[in-house]
Structure formats: structure tokens, C-alpha cells
Design a protein that fits this description.
Elements (H helix, E strand, L loop, with lengths): L8 E4 L9 H16 L3 E6 L9 H14 L8 E2 L4 H13 L3 E4 L3 H13 L25 E4 L6 E6 L3 E6 L7 E3 L7 H11 L4 E5 L3 H14 L5 E5 L2 E2 L15 H6 L4 H10 L12 H7 L10 E2 L2 H13 L3 H16 L5 H14 L6 H7 L13 H6 L2 H15 L6 H15 L3 H13 L8 H8 L1 H12 L1
Helix pairs in contact: 1-9, 3-5, 5-6, 8-10, 11-12, 11-13, 15-16, 15-17, 15-19, 16-17, 16-18, 17-19
The protein binds one RNA strand through helix 4, strand 7, helix 5, helix 6 and strand 12.
RNA sequence: GGCCCCUUCGUCUAGUGGCCUAGGACGCGGCCCUUUCACGGCUGAAACACGGGUUCGAGUCCCGUAGGGGUCACCA
């Protein structure tokens, strides 16, 4: 456990400017796992201070995405914008303590400053021109921004639990803005104040925030607040090693749901991306919670691999409960067939699922693969299947149909015996009968399931009906 | 460009100075199972970026080089 007895509190702090993308989902997952591992709290903070880009739809999408992944948060979500007054209050305190100052530099001045600094190869930050000026020099009618008076020499080091000890010279850090000239707090200020007020003990976030951490640490120090533990995790890259693009999977988790991935599979995949527990590949959320540690997170970035996700998904589908799967795919089947499966067909679906789920890599595939069970005859035939129904084959099927009508019980063993008898009496290989039989029953040359199982699932009437139609 | 970070099979990774003839998983090849398609089992090819050190001994420690990434806003 940790050094002190303090309860672990983590947070996930998305900006509601879009869906919950896959990288954010992993960050949330790590925070969630860490909190649950320590029996602590996992909080949600919506960083909606960018009023123009924040939308209610995005908030809903993020909440939905997290719920779908099974990431439950403690307490009510905190909306950052609603805390602006408190942020301003902290800025004022800093001003009073002499640790912040008013800056009257104009935007034009600042860009010019950056350009010359860049041209001269110096750090491009703010040069501190209002840092020590007397307030009486303030120009008329210009409302100032408030900047932190950051230390100019020395160095700041972060003891990051993923990145290790990282040090940066303070001269690389400029006096960041706390309050804009319109009085609105900046992200840098809001984050620190909120994390402190929420009692966050561990900040686990993408390593694109690493450089922010130095500035934020300066703020914690200025306020004399305890700095939380940082853990900056590497971002996920695309299969080409470049930043994850939409084409490569930088999609919302809802897109993964629509692609037919199970939340368990995605969760399992996401944890293993950049984190490992020995050779374990497939594990439950309970195990992940038990095993998870920040120290186990790799420093190097990981690429997103759809093949591995698909493999994992196949595993979770095979192990999923049939009732649950049926619920997921019924709407998909209804849509594709443009009808609603009745009770009878729903029963058929449940019966078919054990063999269907052995083969599918995703939910959409699962639904499509079983479509033939529910189509109205006459079945649409694919070309390969059509070709299997030669006159010779039809003869075997006619023979089989006759034998089948003598059956008292429509059970697998008896059906199998009749197929075997047909094969034997006609003195042909098994495939000579089985292949056209499959084609007749499914309209396909290849389909999931043993042929006798398919007949049992289809039922006596439907099986015979399809056979008769194929023969004629 | 400045600063910071990263670098083990194609990909995700195990590995914390001798257990490494570098292990597992996905993907790929072969074989087996088989009533198609899958599942499954067995098996094969496949990596310590490069160059210097340190050490009796380096994938593991240090330095450099190369490549990759992040970040440098009155955005978050």
C-alpha cells in the first residue's frame, strides 16, 4: 500500500468536445483500475471550460462510453466551468501573496516576442516584461491577464510513477497565465485547483500532459499544496507507428460497439496495451483489478492492433452467455432480414448460437453468419451452393428425403444415421451427400455447424421444406 | 529548432547483471482433428536499433549515434 493511510482518489477529466475516444477510454480504465485496486475513489470531472466547443451530446457520449465499458465513477461528475469563481479566488490569493502579477502585454506584443525569440533560438516563452513593473505603469483601458510568478532559476523535477524522475530547468518554463484578461481561468489553473479541492492523490493521464506537470507543480508549490503523484502514460499509436488517426482506430468507443466488439474484450485489450502481468493475456476485470499497478505501465508507446483485438473478441464471444448474445444480435438480424424474429425463431436463434459463436470474431459477423436459419424459403443461393446441386446430387437428396420421412423422432443421431445410410447405399463419399445437403439447407457452400445439427435446429418441417425446394 | 521522453520477433509484451540456446500472445507457414467454415492441439519461421564503454559476465548499467514520439497559446 501507499506510504500514508490516505485514501487513493483518481480522476478522469475529459473535455466534452467529442466522443470518448479509445485513448481516453484507456486512460479512464487505468485510473479506474488503480482506484479499485486500492479500494479508493474514481472521480469524473468534465472540463467544459471551453464554452464554444463543449456540448451536451459529447457529455452524454462520454458517460455512455464509460458505462458501456463498465467504468463506474464515484460521486456526481464535477463540471469545471461551474467552479470558475473558486479558480478566480485562488488567482486572487496568489496575487495578494505576491506570487502572481498583472500582465498588460497585448496579443500582438506576445506574438512578436515569440517570433524574435524563435529567430534567436531562445526559449519561446513569455519574457516576464510585466513581472516586476510597477502597477502605476499600467496602460489605460487595458484589462490585464494574471500570470504566475514562476521561479527563474533552479530546476523542477517530477517523480513520475511511469516516466521516472524527470527534471526541467525553470528557465524553460515561463510565467503562465492564470486568469485571462476577460477574467476567465485558464486550464492550467483550473486543473490544479480542482485536483487539489477534489483531493486527487494520483493523476494518471496521457504523457502529452507531461510538460504541463512542471508548470502545475509550480502552482501547487505557490499555493503550498501537496503535489499529487503523477503518472504520465504513453499514448496509443496507429498500426503505422504514427499518431492514432481516425482511419486507424481513433474512434469513439461507440464505434467499437458498432463494429461488434464486446466491452469485456475491448477492456481486456486496452489493459494489455502498455501493461502486462507476466504472460497472462486473457483475464477478468477482477484479476486486472487485483494485479494492476502503475509501475507496471511501460514507458514506450504501443500500437493499436485490430487483429489482436479481434482475436480477443472472438474469445469473449465464444465464452459469452447465449441469452445475452441473442439479445445483442436480434436487432441486427431483424434489420438485415427486414422483419422481427418471432418467439419461435428466437428459440431457434438460441439453439443455433452455440455453434455460431465458435466462429464469429465480432457481433456483426455473428449475426450475419446465422441469417440462413431465419430466411423464408425459397432461400437465396450463392453461386457455389447452386453448383453443388447437380442432378446427381439431387438424386441423393431425394433418397435422403424419403428416408427422413420414415423417422419417428427428429433427433441428431437418427438424422445422422439416415445420412450415413444414404451415403452407404449409393456407395459414394460422405461429401457427395453432405455438401449438396448443406447447400440445400443453407443456400451456402460453407456455413457454421454440423449438417445434422443444422437440421435439428431448423426443425423437421423447415428442413424438409428446404430440401424439397432444392430438389425441384 | 529548444526542452523532455522512448527503442526486445511484423504487432502487444516477459525480462530488473549470470536462470536467455531471449519466453508468451496476435498475425503468418506446416501438420493433426474434421461433414463445409471455424474452434482446438502440435509445430515452424521471426527480435535485444547501431557504436563504444563498465564488468569475470550486459537485453538488463553508463556514454554517444540513429530513428520515433511528446511539448513549446490569453486551447484543453
Amino acid at each position: 500500500m501507499s506510504q500514508n493511510a490516505k485514501q487513493v482518489i483518481t480522476r478522469f477529466a475529459p473535455s466534452p468536445t467529442g466522443f470518448l475516444h479509445i485513448g481516453g477510454a484507456r486512460t479512464a480504465l487505468f485510473n479506474w483500475l488503480f482506484a479499485r485496486h486500492h479500494g479508493g475513489k474514481f472521480m469524473l470531472r468534465i472540463e467544459d471550460t471551453d464554452r464554444k466547443r463543449s456540448t451536451q451530446e459529447a457529455i452524454d457520449a462520454i458517460l455512455d462510453g464509460m458505462s458501456w465499458l463498465g467504468l463506474d465513477w464515484d460521486d456526481e461528475p464535477i463540471f469545471q466551468y461551474s467552479r470558475a469563481d473558486r479558480h478566480r479566488e485562488v488567482a486572487e490569493q496568489l496575487l495578494e501573496k505576491g506570487l502572481a502579477y498583472r500582465c498588460y502585454a497585448t496579443p500582438e506584443e506576445l506574438t512578436e516576442m515569440r517570433e524574435t525569440a524563435k529567430a534567436e533560438g531562445r526559449p519561446v516563452g513569455y519574457d516576464g516584461r510585466w513581472r516586476d513593473r510597477d502597477p502605476s505603469e499600467a496602460p489605460e483601458g487595458v484589462s490585464p491577464a494574471i500570470r504566475l510568478k514562476a521561479p527563474r532559476d533552479g530546476a523542477t523535477t517530477i517523480h513520475d510513477h511511469v516516466q521516472g524522475e524527470v527534471t526541467v530547468q525553470n528557465q524553460e518554463l515561463d510565467d503562465m497565465i492564470l486568469l485571462r484578461s476577460d477574467g476567465s481561468p485558464t486550464y492550467m489553473l483550473s486543473v490544479v485547483v480542482d485536483d487539489h479541492d477534489m483531493g486527487i492523490t494520483h493523476i494518471i493521464r496521457g504523457d502529452d500532459h507531461l510538460t504541463n506537470a512542471f508548470r502545475q507543480k509550480l502552482l501547487y508549490q505557490a499555493m503550498d499544496w501537496e503535489t499529487p503523484i503523477f503518472a504520465h502514460i504513453p499514448l496509443i499509436y496507429g498500426p503505422d507507428g504514427k499518431k492514432l488517426s481516425k482511419r486507424h482506430g481513433a474512434l469513439g468507443v461507440d464505434a467499437y460497439r458498432d463494429m461488434g466488439y464486446l466491452p469485456d474484450a475491448l477492456r481486456n485489450y486496452l489493459v494489455r496495451l502498455g501493461w502486462a502481468h507476466g504472460d497472462d493475456e486473457i483475464f477478468s476485470t477482477e484479476q486486472a483489478t487485483e494485479w494492476f499497478s502503475i509501475e507496471g505501465i511501460n514507458k514506450s508507446p504501443a500500437r493499436f492492433d485490430f487483429d489482436k483485438l479481434a482475436n480477443l473478441n472472438g474469445h469473449y464471444i465464444r465464452n459469452a452467455d447465449e441469452e445475452k448474445l441473442a439479445q445483442l444480435i436480434k436487432p441486427l438480424i431483424d434489420k438485415q432480414l427486414d422483419k422481427s424474429l418471432d418467439d419461435n425463431l428466437c428459440q431457434r436463434l438460441i439453439a443455433a448460437l452455440p455453434s455460431l459463436k465458435e466462429r464469429a470474431k465480432d457481433i456483426n459477423e455473428l449475426a450475419s453468419s446465422g441469417l440462413f436459419y431465419f430466411r423464408e424459403s425459397p432461400l437465396p443461393f450463392e453461386e457455389k451452393a447452386e453448383k453443388l446441386l447437380t442432378d446427381e446430387a439431387k438424386g441423393y437428396l431425394k433418397d435422403l428425403l424419403q428416408r427422413l420421412s420414415g423417422l419417428n423422432n427428429w433427433v441428431k443421431s437418427d438424422i445422422h444415421d439416415q445420412i450415413a445410410a444414404t451415403v452407404a447405399d449409393n456407395d459414394v463419399g460422405f461429401g457427395k451427400v453432405a455438401k449438396p445437403l448443406r447447400a440445400a439447407l443453407t443456400g451456402l457452400a460453407a456455413s457454421p455447424g454440423n449438417i445434422d445439427d443444422i437440421m435439428v435446429i431448423l426443425g423437421e418441417d423447415e428442413s424438409k421444406k428446404r430440401l424439397e425446394q432444392a430438389i425441384s
